[in-house]
Amino acid sequence: MNLNSIFADLISKFSDNEKLKTDYWQEIEKSYSQKNRKYHNLTHLENMILELENVKEETSDYDVMLFSVFYHDIIYKATSKDNEEKSAEVAKTRLDKLNISNERITKIYNQILATKSHKRSDDSDTNFLVDADLAILGKDWKVYDNYIQQIRKEYSIYPDFLYNPGRKKVLTHFLEFDEIFKTNHFKEKYEKMARENIQREISML
User: Fold this and answer.
1) Can you say whether the dihedral through the CA atoms of 126, 52, 72, 97 is positive or negative?
2) Where do the structural domains in the chain lie, given as residue ranges?
3) Distances (CA, A) of 57 to 2, 61, 108, 132, 148
4) How far is the C-alpha of 97 from the C-alpha of 70, rounded, in Å?
5) What are φ and ψ of residue 48, in 5° steps?
6) Among residues 93, 113, 114, 95, which one has the least CA distance to residue 104?
7) Distance (Å, rounded) from C-alpha 42 to C-alpha 61?
8) In this predicted structure, what is the pLDDT of residue 103?
9) Hey, which CATH number is domain 3-204, 1.10.1300.10, 3.20.20.70, 1.10.10.10, 1.10.1660.10?
10) Quick one: how far is CA 43 from the chain centroid?
């Protein structure tokens, strides 16, 4: 998958400013390629888009969702509690310079914020986005185990006695949802496996 060309095609729908297109992509690429990003990187974006391509026909504004994917983790620090808010602000600032309606920019802003709490939304596109963000939870154990290790490396600043209780809290939070996945497509595909994986990881902490 060529993320650069997907992003270029997306931007071209709203602007013919080539410099802006290049600058925006370079910012995204640089942000997601930082060496501390073992999971929240370009591969994560690719995987989300692959998941969303399967439900493209069911979405109401796929372009908005793509912008949300590209910007949802543009700011990511393991020690920070407001990555999503900061990422949403970056998206708003950048997209204000394109020919995108305020209504759509607000949607993108809210979709990015939704990736923080992963709660059910009244907006079905937002539910698809959040489900795609969590799809890793329902993969087979080998893939999930690799994800666990990548996340641990991102939080390597914290020793186990601090990391493990925090991670357990996050995982328990998912299990407390009536449904981890908010859309039928993702629920059928990943819910059962996700719960098994999470339980297994908790038992290892």
Assistant:
1) negative
2) 3-204
3) 21, 10, 19, 15, 32
4) 16
5) -65, -45
6) 95
7) 22
8) 98
9) 1.10.1300.10
10) 11
What is the chain's pLDDT, residue by residue, as a tens digit (205 residues)?
Answer: 999 999 999 999 999 999 999 999 999 999 999 999 999 999 999 999 999 999 999 999 999 999 999 999 999 999 999 999 999 999 999 999 999 999 999 999 999 999 999 999 999 999 999 999 999 999 999 999 999 999 999 999 999 999 999 999 999 999 999 999 999 999 999 999 999 999 999 999 9
How far apart (Å, rounded) are the C-alpha atoms in residues 45 and 190? 18
Distance CA 173, CA 77 (A): 21
**What is the spatial distance between Cα 55 and Cα 39, in angstroms, rounded to a whole number?**
23
Give the whole-angstrom CA distance, residue 98 versus residue 76: 24
Cα(205)–Cα(195) distance, rounded to whole angstroms? 16
- Quote the distance between the C-alpha of residue 31 and its chain's center: 14
The Cα–Cα gap between 17 and 109 comes to 23
Q: What is the pTM of this model?
A: 0.97
Which residues fall within 8 angstroms of residue 86, CB to CB, at 6 or more apart?
Answer: 75, 80
Length reported for the chain: 205
Torsional sign, CA 53, 8, 116, 127: negative
Residue 48 is predicted with a pLDDT of: 98
The pLDDT value recorded for residue 21 is 95
The span from the CA of 205 to the CA of 177, in Å, is 21
